[in-house]
Here is the input.
Amino acid sequence: MLVKALRNGLGMIIVFVSWLTLPKQIKRNEVDQVQAQENTQGLALYQLYACPFCVKTRRAIHRLNITLEIRDIGKQPSYRQELEQQGGRIKVPCLRIEEQGEVRWMYESDDIISYLDQQVG
Ligand SMILES: N[C@@H](CCC(=O)N[C@@H](CS)C(=O)NCC(=O)O)C(=O)O
Here is the structure.
């Protein structure tokens, strides 16, 4: 109970500091912005709001100036269930990638950020 409260408190501090120190967003012309957004079609990020690795991943999304569908497993039990049953485990962040009708699940914040950098960086 106490550990959970401390972890949540620390998570909220991380969220706040992250908000204060958000990275600069990549600026693109209109055409490139539409293209960048198109390149992220079919992606959904499973996450928890105050998880430090999720904060790190959201910062990268902010830097890349893209909008991704965010599926918070703490707020929506069905997302948690999907992650466990289809992804294979409950660990966040996890990126669900749907390409040409195939779905894969990418765990590990560093891998997710590299993938996003490659797609739209
Ligand atoms: N190395 C992973 C660490 C992710 C991680 O530990 N996430 C925690 C939440 S902050 C989690 O989902 N823990 C559950 C578990 O590992 O089963 C990353 O960078 O994405």
